[in-house]
Amino acid sequence: MNTAEVKGVGPQKRRLTRVFQVMSASILVLTVAGCSAHEPYSEVMGYVVGDPSQRHPIRVSKQDRHTDFVVRRGDRGLNKSDKERFRTLIRRYKTNGVGQLFVRAPVGAPNEVAVGRALRQFRNVMKEEQIPRRAVHFATFVPQGDPEAPITVSYKGYVAKGPECGLWTRNLAESRQNLPYENFGCAQQQNLAAMVDTPKDLVVPRHMDPRDGDRRDKLWDNYINGEDTTSKKSKDQNAGISEAGESGGNKQ
User: Fold this and answer.
1) What is the spatial distance between Cα 88 and Cα 90, in angstroms, rounded to a whole number?
2) I need a labelling partner for 8 at 20 to 30 A (CA). Which of 22, 46, 50, 55 fits?
3) What residues does each domain of the chain span?
4) CA proximity to 58, closest of 191, 184, 205
5) pTM exceeding 0.85
6) What is the pLDDT of residues 95-114, one digit of tens each?
7) Considering only the top CATH level, what class is 59-161?
8) 62 and 157 in contact (C-beta within 8 Å)?
C-alpha cells in the first residue's frame, strides 16, 4: 500500500464522520422534540390552559367595613335589633377580619349619655364573644352639628372578586388544537367568588376547634376501671334484618 492510497482514504473517512455527526444531531433533536410533545402544557397563546383557577383567578383583597349604630337621646343604649346586629358584626370580624377592630364614639352631643350606655353593651358583647381587649381600638370624635351622631364600628375584611367573563373571540366549532377555550371555567370561578361566605378561607386555612373531651374522659375512666368502653345501643339498634322483617310482617 503506497502513500497515495493512504492519502485518498483520509478525506472519505472524514466525510463519513461528518455525515454520522449530522445524523446523530438530527436524531437527538427529534428525540427531544418527541419528549417535549408529551409534557403537560402550561401556557399557549398567552393564557394558561391547564387549570381554570390559574387562567381565571379569584382576587382576594382587604377592604374597609363600616357599620353605623344610631343611638338617640334618651335611649337606654342599643335596642335589641342593633345589639344582635353588633353581635353578627363581631362574629364576622372573628372569621373574616384583619387587624384591629375600631370603635369611634361621639362626645359632646345631646346623645352622649345614651352613647356611653351603648359602649358598655359593646364591651359586654365583645367579652361574650371572647374578643381580646388589645384587638379593639376605641376613639372619640366631636360631631359637627349632628345631635344624633352614630357610633361607627369598622375593620378591614377580606373581599373576594371573581374574574371578568365573556371572552368569545374564538369559534369553538373550529378548535384544531383541541385546547380549552379562553372562557372555560370562568363562570365557575365567578360563582365561587360570589358564594363563598368567608373569603379569608381562600387565603389561609381556619384554626381547628378544640376537641370535645367529655366523651374521651369517660372512655378513659372506663378503661382505667376495667369497664366496657363500647357505646351502648338501644334495642332497636340491636335488631337484625330478619327481626325487622318479621316485625313488619306481623304488623301486616
Assistant:
1) 5
2) 22
3) 59-161
4) 191
5) no
6) 899 999 999 999 988 999 99
7) alpha beta
8) yes
